[in-house]
Amino acid sequence: MSTPVSVNVAVIYYSSTGTVHALAEAIANSAEQAGAEVRLRRATELAPRAAIESNPAWAAHADATADIPEAVPDDMLWADAVIFGSPTRYGNVTSQLKQFIDMLGGLWQQGELADKVYSGFTASATAHGGQESTLLALYNTIHHFGGILVAPGYTDPAKFIDGNPYGTSHVGGPDTSIDDNARTAARVQAERVVRFTRAIKKGLAT
């Protein structure tokens, strides 16, 4: 029996009050269960402490996750697949995640971001709060990377329940915990990313 191809997955996200963090943990755990080596990394916070302290949920989450390593370009080099996460910000990704992506210009020029698998997840306070446009905006970046986009689509019966083919998502504010539908969607997406990354990596090696 041949040895399974190793897969490195970086889950890189920004979360202010914890919803996207919970999704990130669910995706990271599912990727590990699917046999991948996983790095869970948060984007560097840009907001001043005064702004963070003005929102108790934001301040509490910032303190609770201070020990999670911040994402650095080396995480992109290490990864065979990258799953980005961001809450919606007026239909786009947060400035914190965008700054991390903007720091990758050197790797992009060297071709180091190409031929990796990419996927994304998000959250919004309302059902039509920009989830689709946020993920589509993120995925535009993947085309510039020369990356391989692996979205969940409607490839599993569970996807007809959560209804988002672009990526795992959650609707609700900081007081609304992610539900079983979101956790199932996270598992489906993570398993699909690991499966296709393994197949692509094996194919590129032959």
From TrEMBL:
- What's the domain of life for this entry? Bacteria
In this chain the Flavodoxin-like domain maps to 9-190
Name the EC number(s). 1.6.5.2
- The first-level EC class reads oxidoreductase
Q: Which Pfam families match?
A: FMN_red
Record's keyword annotation contains Oxidoreductase = yes
Q: Which UniProt keywords apply?
A: Oxidoreductase
Q: One MF term in GO for this entry? A: NAD(P)H dehydrogenase (quinone) activity
One annotated Gene Ontology cellular component of this protein: membrane
Record's InterPro entries? Answer: Flavodoxin/NO_synth (IPR008254), Flavoprotein-like_sf (IPR029039), Flavoprotein_WrbA-like (IPR010089), FMN_Rdtase-like_dom (IPR005025)
Q: Which family does it belong to?
A: Belongs to the WrbA family.
Listed name of the protein: NAD(P)H dehydrogenase (Quinone)
Q: Which organism is it from?
A: Streptomyces zagrosensis
Organism lineage string? Bacteria, Bacillati, Actinomycetota, Actinomycetes, Kitasatosporales
